[in-house]
Design brief:
The complex is a heterodimer. Chain A is mainly α. Helix content of chain A is 36%, strand content 8%. In chain A, the strands form three sheets. In chain A, strands 1-2 form a two-stranded antiparallel sheet. A two-stranded antiparallel sheet of chain A has the order 3-4. In chain B, α2 runs antiparallel to α3, α3 crosses α4 and α4 packs across α8. The chains are: A mainly alpha, B mainly alpha.
């Protein structure tokens, strides 16, 4: 230990222990300079320069801080923290909310949320997050069977009804094909079969046939007359487009199917090169055990063709209400 | 030496959230705390002070002790907040140097100091530059914070005797530096 490191040695030289206490005392040593040796003058001046620093003072800010402290002591809560810290000068607790909002707004989620087009749980989470910063987006919890008209009054939708996005209630239930348009051929063909019943029930119950009757009525004729020129007759060959194939060379071709109204068993067989296979989906046709009959029955009217891309809801049959119902249910 | 009459009664009232009592405690400590923070961390003193008072408000109900212990507790919070801030500031390094620091001639040392004209900032800077960190801390807590040996010892987690030795060495070193550099009053 060197002499200068020995505390006992230190205490005997200037500044002494007494000098030190006097110089560092909270009260300025200049109030009683006679207590200090002359050599302490520089030190006293240096320390006084530090001590004489006057902190900034704003009486109003002090009063706000005191009030905020008292309020925080009486009822500390997470909700009050941002306000209190702000009064003290910093807004630390607001970071979490700000980060969440920035995260939402920084993604494309915000636009989708405003449209209410997110999946139910996501829409609900975004709506709840943005509600903290007074941004209103649709919440699935708020619109389950309840809407709000333009005057702000709540209105109830009957089950099966849905808003179409313009504030109107769209009709629900099956609509059926347009008998006056693209579906005319199919409806007339089916009607020409003379069956009194559809596959699923009475013909009179069928929306499709009702549409046909209505279209005929609108045209001022009965359905038979309405279908003249369209309806195929037994044994009459009708040629309809059925789809296309792409040749190995990449040349797309449109094929046609010679349709003879069903009088025999389907004879075409994938891989045998007989007739088009059409959009038959995944259903495997049963290999015929009888000699090949007329071709072409596996075309568009085949049951397997219709089910080939099934698994999805048919666009008709009242699916207009599906999106909003899905949101409401989720 | 206490400056608050009947500190225990004031503390109890403050712990209930009585505003008058909170005001007494606040006004007793605030000038020292603000001075300490403004000198030690001038760029963030206001924010740090806000954080300190918020922490005091949140922890006051659990505090027990006398007036000196209360001041020591407040300054302990201030030192922790300051240390946190400095760690964060080093990582971010977002504080630009003030223009007056850039304008100051390089190598301006004690020999250029005229004590009578010395600002509090410059005097504190001289102390910090001259002393080892533990000695500077003791001196600034005692002078800026107006705290006694026992309070400083409590804040630093040292024995009062150790603090006395540190402060004595600190003043001796400062004195030597001032004499050697020919600083004039």
């Amino acid at each position: 230990m060197t002499p200068s490191d020995d505390p006992r040695d230190d205490m005997n030289r200037f500044p002494t222990s007494h000098d030190t206490d006097r110089l560092l005392d909270a009260h300025s040593p200049e109030q009683s300079p006679e207590d200090l040796p002359d050599e302490a003058a520089r030190l006293a001046t240096l320390l006084s320069s530090i001590r004489n620093h006057v902190a900034r003072r704003d009486p109003e800010a002090e009063q706000r801080a005191i009030s905020a402290m008292a309020a925080e002591i009486r009822g500390p809560s997470i909700e009050s923290a941002p306000g209190v810290s702000h009064l003290f000068g910093r807004r630390v607790p607001a970071k979490a909310t700000a980060l969440a909002v920035v995260a939402v707004l920084a993604t494309g989620t915000a636009a989708a949320a405003v449209n209410g087009s997110l999946p139910g749980p996501v829409q609900r989470a975004v709506a709840n997050t943005l509600s903290h910063v007074s941004i209103s987006v649709p919440n699935p919890d708020d619109r389950q069977n309840i809407g709000t008209d333009q005057n702000g009054a709540a209105k109830h939708h009957a089950p099966g009804q849905a808003e179409n996005g313009r504030g109107n209630v769209a009709p629900s239930g099956p609509v059926g094909p347009d008998a006056g348009g693209a579906a005319k051929y199919g409806l007339c063909t089916a009607a020409a079969q003379g069956s009194a019943a559809t596959s699923n029930g009475k013909r009179s119950d069928s929306v499709a046939f009702s549409n046909l009757e209505k279209a005929a009525s609108d045209a001022g004729v009965n359905s038979t007359k309405f279908c003249e020129g369209v309806t195929p007759h037994n044994g009459v060959t009708n040629t309809t487009p059925t789809g296309g194939t792409t040749l190995p060379g990449g040349v797309a071709t449109t094929t046609t199917t010679t349709t003879t109204l069903p009088h025999g068993r389907p004879a075409s067989w994938p891989g045998e090169g007989v007739g088009p296979t059409g959009p038959t989906g995944h259903t495997q046709p049963t290999r015929p055990t009888t000699p090949a009959g007329p071709t072409g029955a596996t075309g568009p009217t085949g049951a397997s063709g219709a089910s080939g891309k099934s698994g999805h809801a048919h666009p008709s049959s009242g699916s207009a209400a599906a999106p909003s119902q899905a949101d409401a249910e989720s | 030496m206490g400056t608050v009459d009947d500190f225990d009664a004031v503390l109890s009232a403050a712990q209930r959230g009585d505003e008058w009592a909170v005001a007494i405690l606040y006004r007793d400590v605030r000038p020292r705390l603000a001075r300490f923070l403004e000198i030690r961390e001038p760029r963030a003193a206001e924010d740090l002070e806000g954080e300190v008072w918020l922490a005091v408000a949140q922890g006051l109900a659990r505090f027990s002790g006398g007036e000196e212990s209360f001041r020591a507790w407040v300054f302990s919070i201030a030192r922790r907040r300051m240390a946190d801030f400095r760690r964060t500031a080093v990582r971010r390094a977002t504080f630009p140097a003030p223009m007056e620091e850039l304008d100051r001639p390089a190598g301006a040392g004690p020999e250029a100091i005229v004590l009578e004209d010395l600002s509090a900032d410059a005097a504190a800077e001289f102390v910090i530059a001259t002393l080892p960190p533990d000695q500077a801390e003791v001196v600034l807590l005692r002078v800026l914070g107006g705290l006694g040996v026992v309070e400083v010892a409590e804040i630093l987690g040292k024995r009062p005797g150790t603090v006395r030795v540190l402060q004595h060495r600190a003043l001796r070193r400062l004195h030597t530096a001032l004499v050697r550099s020919g600083v004039t009053r």
